[in-house]
Amino acid sequence: MDKRFLLFLALSFVVLMINGWVMRQLAPPPPVGPQIAQPAGDHAAGEGGDQLGLAADAPGAPPTPPPLNTADVPAPDETQPAPEQPGPEQPAPAVNPPEAVAAAQQPNRFLTLGSLDPDSPFRLLATFTSHGAAVRRLELSSEHFRDLHDRSGYLGHFEAIKAPGGGALLRVVGAGTPAAEAGLLAEDVVTAINDLPVANAAQLLDRLAETSPGDQIRIAATRDGAAVPEMTATLTRRPLEVMRPEQENVLLYRAALPADFQDPPSFRLTLSQLDDKTLSDKAPELPGVGMLDANWEVVDAQTDAKRVTFRYELPAQGVVIEKVFRVAKVPDEELANELYPAYHLELEIRIQNESSQKRSVGYQLDGPTGLPIEGWWYANKIGRKWFSAAGLRDVAVQFRGGDAELISASSIAKDDTEALGQNQSLMYMGVDAQYFACMLIPKKAVQSDVWLTESRAMRIGPKPEKGDRVSVTSVTTRMTSQPLELAPDESTSYTYTVFAGPKKPALLAEYKQPGDKVTYTLDPLVYYGMFTPVAKVMLGLLHVFERVVGNYGIAIILLTVLVRSCLFPISRKQALNMQKMQELQPEIKKLTEKYKTDLEKRTRAQQELFRKHNYHPLAGCLPALLQFPIFIGLYRSLMVDVELRQAPLFSSAIHWCSNLAAPDMLWNWSSLMPDVITKGSGIFGLGPYLNLLPIVTIGLFVLQSTMFMPPPADDNAAMQQKIMKFMFIFMGFLFYRVASGLCLYFVASTLWGITERKLIPKTMAAKKTPETTPEGKKRIEPPPPPGPNGSGGKQSKAKKKKQK
After folding, report:
1. Is 126:137 a contact under the CB 8 Å cutoff?
2. In a domain? residue 39
3. Tens digits of residue pLDDT in 445-489
4. What's the pLDDT at 591?
5. Are residues 475 and 409 in contact, defined by beta-carbon separation less than 8 angstroms?
6. Tens digits of per-residue pLDDT, 261-275?
7. ∠402-408-412 over CA atoms, to 5°?
8. Number of domains comprising the chain
9. How far apart are CA 232 and CA 769, in angstroms?
10. What is the pLDDT of residue 11?
11. Is residue 441 part of a domain?
12. Residues 625 and 519 in one domain
């Protein structure tokens, strides 16, 4: 074997190893930790249930989990709720002081606002917990946004626990869910599904795991101790949750939760200052406050009025704090408008001084948690800075007078971040996922008003250790307010718009912070990186084609036809140029033999030969160079545009190629392949599925190369062809986890190229190239020697024969 080829293989192997090491640093494969015992209590019970529901999608098991239709599996004592786990990066709180005992004795209640009915005036369904007065879960009602991992039947999320007499006690039933449509209510006890008994919440999960979207199930239940008539529910596909318990995300890529795992809900609130006491970074709360892990009183739960109010009192200080959540509603005349800005909650914080003394009060508000990490083994997100690695969830922020910033999950995981915006006016801040985002927008009377002393990007839970995945780090925000002096019986309030929805540019533009000179919107959340203009053009054309044909797969094929048609004059010239190169091969070979030891003369002779025949060696690269921005633009479009997420090639009912923004996922090979392959990390981490379209793409590349590559004229050309064959293998690894829509583009483009080359006439082959000298002059053969009669040798022989 050629030494240069061996050297190339060795260097390529080194490059692959370096690439694998870099990828492991950015997103290393997760270790499989030991199974931990379920902690007791309401919150812990919920975590246990989701653990059972998602463990099937851990490495080494099928990535599609059973349904998470109940959020809770019983703790050892399921009927006795207990406090939740401690908050982010914080030690366990001390026992509540006497003034907080009344609040701690409140029961943990779950409430919902909005609806999952796509025909309702609500775009979302929010589930709240009185434990910390926080958001537990937020689901989108649109049928365009469904969960990509869980493809079993969805009945609803119930925060269920085991009923004292057996069965699954549903602590909440959201409006618009199949459970609500069937007639189930909160506090009902489900005792059987399809005549199969349900002894507890875990068994309810098991029964629902065997179902599929569209199935009808029969439900036996009791209400207030008495049996109710059997109900029938039609299951749907699980909706996309913009926020949910983080453990459901963790168990997508881990077999078990870490021993020190923390899972706080979204938008927890505590006091950052009370009189002369200021909260430090090391303490979870001020002494005597205990708001984070207490059950707040529900003083107003008007689902018809789209409002729920939680109340927490500090009797010793005479301070009362209220958190009011409201859900946006779509006007009747805008129900058909999917871009109407109703993908949000309103969060109002009220602080009142009921004492007879002046109080100095400030608050600390944590941001959203549990945003999606769907496609954790193949998904990529674009950073806003050159060579910056973005995680699947990053913190986005913008201050008045500044540019939009994206703080990557890798920086947050390493605690490599600083406090932001000291005494600056915040425009928005929140967590940015690949296709969805959750942003807090202060509702200010004047844009320049400064509410906060500082804002922070922070991780939740322990610092990642070696082997942990950095790209899926759970991140959130923390805002600390300016302290405010409150006179006796004086109150103050702060209101935030909480956007929680898809990253559609037209929708994001509706969420704004108006001002006299500049209006700040959420537009910067959609970012295409390099070749942004090309990406926008590609995306616009795709949307136009999709509106005509109704399918993004066909739209991508039509886009390919349009691109290749526009490039046809150039590609035709390339094909003719390659034909000419084949005709010149004999002459090039002669020049190579003649000037074996004189490279300079050989080069000059070849250049003269090329000029004479009007051949341009670099002309064949032009179509590839022109298509490169198109390739990058389409690649970025698939990574960014939420319209292409969940867009199927055939139908969403068929799992193969049901999401053009993801690999096609033909067959789950997790049970056969080692973890180093199924974990999807590094160049050899192919993921848990066998993907067909990348194999077809590379196969067509090889076929096209075999059909039209001219035979090597010398050793160098042979070496180049060997390198090309090896590069196809390398490209196979690179292409294996790319979006199926991108593979579809390359398949259609390559088939077009093969057909185009077959149809172009071989005009050069009909003309025999005259033999030339190294100097480029036409070679003139000398005439044959004259015969006896003055003619050439052949003619003389003929005459002699005739004479005989």
Report:
1. yes
2. no
3. 999 999 999 999 999 977 776 656 788 899 999 999 999 999 999
4. 81
5. yes
6. 889 999 999 999 999
7. 105
8. 2
9. 81
10. 52
11. yes
12. no
Q: What is the dihedral of CA 647, 649, 653, 658, to 10 degrees?
A: -60
Task: Tell me the chain's radius of gyration from C-alpha atoms.
Answer: 34
Q: Which of 506, 512, 463, 464 is nearest to 641 (CA)?
A: 506
Q: Are residues 382 and 501 in the same domain?
A: yes
Burial level of 514, CB count in 10 A (0-12/13-18/19+)? Answer: exposed
Is 60 exceeded by the pLDDT of residue 38? no
Computed from CA positions of residues 250, 252, 253, 258, in that sequence, does the dihedral angle turn out positive or negative? positive
- Look at residues 473, 496, 527 and tell me which one is the last residue of a structural domain: 527
My answer on whether 428 and 551 are in the same domain is: no
C-beta of residue 254 within 8 angstroms of C-beta of residue 58: yes
The answer to whether 172 touches 86, Cβ cutoff 8 Å, is no
110 within some domain: no
d(CA 316, CA 160): 36
Tokens of 499: 């956007």
Exposure class string for 344-359: b at 16+ Cβ within 10 A, else e: bbbbbbbbbbbbeeeb
CATH of the domain at 402: 2.70.98
pLDDT at residue 43 is higher than 70: no
Residue 580 has pLDDT above 70, yes or no: yes
511 and 573 housed in the same domain:
no
What helix, strand, coil percent values describe the chain, rounded to 5?
Answer: 30, 20, 45
Q: Give the amino acid at 237.
A: R
CA distances from 4 to 10, 127, 169, 784 (A): 10, 64, 71, 48
Rounded distance, CA 326 to CA 320, Å? 20
Do 419 and 335 lie in one domain? The reply is yes
Q: Which residues of 271-299 are buried (b: 16+ CB within 10 A; e: fewer)?
A: bbbbeeeebeeeebbbebbbbbbbbbbbe
CA angle 483, 489, 493 (to 5 degrees): 45
Q: Which residues pair with 309 in a beta bridge?
A: 300, 324
Give yes or no: residues 369 and 426 share one domain: yes
The Cα–Cα gap between 243 and 177 comes to: 17
What are the tokens at 260?
Answer: 């020190």
pTM summary value: 0.81
Q: What is the pLDDT of residues 641-680, one digit of tens each?
A: 999 999 999 988 888 999 999 999 999 998 888 888 887 7
In the block, tokens 């002081």 appear at 97
Asked if residue 548 and residue 510 are part of one domain, the reply reads no
Cα atoms found within 13 Å of the Cα of residue 68, Cβ hemisphere only: 33
Residues 441, 571 within the same domain = no
Q: Is 16 exposed, middle or buried (0-12, 13-18, 19+ CB in 10 A)?
A: middle
